[in-house]
Amino acid sequence: MLVKLGSQGEDVKKVQAVLKIDISGIFDESTKQVVADWQAKHGLFNDGIVGDVTWKVMSQPVYNLSNLKGYIPDSVLSQIPLVADKYGIHSSLRLGHFLAQASHESAGFTAFTENLNYSAQGLLKTFPYYFKTLEQANAYANQPEKIANKVYGNRLGNGNEASGEGWKFRGRGYLQLTGKENYQSLAKSLNIDLVSNPELVGSQYPLASAGWFFKKNQLLTICDNGISNETIEQLTKRINGGLIGITDRIAKTQKFAKLLQVTA
Question: For residue 59, what pLDDT is reported?
């Protein structure tokens, strides 16, 4: 679909019907403004033109959260409406992807804070850039705070290893938000002091932090491409840096997509 200022016909009527405005079949200035406002609210480029991507999101059926009961904890379900509205996760397609990725990263919405209790061998395998010898790894093994300060020091807005900010701003929330810069940006979005109270990301804003991450990194437009394996892999690389856990991510996305009645 491609309708814009000056367009006329049945496609324009379809758009106007979805937006619940006067169905004239004429794409005038007022229709363009309503479309642009709708795009902005839903995290899309608000040019006031209804192309394939905008129409795909616009025509998605409204999701029914009751379909997820028993598959998603009630504590998470209760957070979805506000998080979805704030960060533009309005379509069932976007929500299916979002919940699947968040569920995988948090072990089914049970892990709120990053586990950094690695053995020496685990450090060599997981953080080879920072631990190149067994001797180096042994000096940090099974010391989560020390490990965090090592691997997160001097990056992501954190101070050096001695500052302790690697541990203070370690991964929290359902997508393991990490680093002082990200905590500061999320704090502005929520109007909450998360720099002084970083533990709130895990305890009170685990889903909101994930929603912010999706919007900030423009992941929602990837979700709009459907639920093919290729799309899920593309999304996973942006979240994880690789394809760790891709089999589970695909399975979860397909499951939530079916529950939310999303088609490929």
Answer: 79
Neighbour-count burial of 99, counting CB atoms closer than 10 A to its CB (0-12 exposed, 13-18 middle, 19+ buried):
buried
CB-CB neighbours of 261 under 10 Å: 13
At 181, the pLDDT band (50, 70, 90 cuts) reads very high
Site of tokens 């998605």: 60
Neighbours of 182 (CB within 10 A): 22
For tokens 């088609």, what's the residue? 263
Residue 62 confidence (pLDDT): 65
The answer to whether residue 262 scores a pLDDT higher than 70 is no
47 within 8 A of 79, measured Cβ to Cβ: no
Other CB atoms within 10 A of residue 236 CB:
23
Largest CA distance in the chain: 74
% of the chain beyond a pLDDT of 90 = 80
256 CB-near residues (< 8 Å, 6+ apart) = 68, 71, 95, 96, 99, 100, 103
Dihedral pair phi/psi, residue 209, rounded to 5°? -65, -35
- Give the bridge partners for 69, in sequence order: 72
Based on the number of CB atoms within 10 Å of its own CB, is 75 exposed (0-12), middle (13-18) or buried (19 or more)? exposed
Each residue's pLDDT tens digit, 40-96:
877 778 999 999 888 877 876 667 788 899 999 999 998 998 898 889 887 888 999
Q: Say whether 46 sits in a helix, a strand or coil.
A: coil
d(CA 81, CA 95): 11
